[in-house]
Amino acid sequence: MDLISFVFLILFFIIISWYLTEPLFDMDLKSEYQNEDNNYELNQRKEILYRQLKELELDHEIDNIAENDFIAERQNLKKEVSTILNKLED
Predict the structure, then answer these.
(1) Rounded Cα distance, 53 and 47, in Å
(2) 10-38 residue pLDDT tens
(3) Cβ contacts of residue 39 below 8 Å, gap of 6+?
């Protein structure tokens, strides 16, 4: 093998190695994925809380829950939803 072929082979190996390992060291990409995961989880939790709030209001309409319990639980759910919405805005 002549010198030029050897240099090209080494250069090719270095470029391929860099291409394969570069994503492992890209911190911006990792934080972006973590942020997307966090937003997805927050959106899922928000939807669950909205469903719980709707069920609570339906239970209240058919007198399935006491007035005091309804008010307390509704305030707790609204507080948690507002916390999640604030996190999603940031």
Answers:
(1) 10
(2) 999 999 999 888 877 776 666 666 667 78
(3) 88
List the structure tokens of 35. Answer: 């942020």
- Please, what is the average pLDDT of the chain? 87
Residues sharing a CB contact under 8 Å with residue 80, sequence separation 6 or more, in sequence order: 49
Rounded Cα gap, residues 31 and 16, in angstroms: 25
Q: Which two structure tokens, joined as six digits, stand for 3?
A: 């010198």
Are the beta carbons of 46 and 88 closer than 8 angstroms? yes
For residue 77, what are the contacts with CB-CB under 8 A and spacing of at least 6? 49, 52, 53, 56
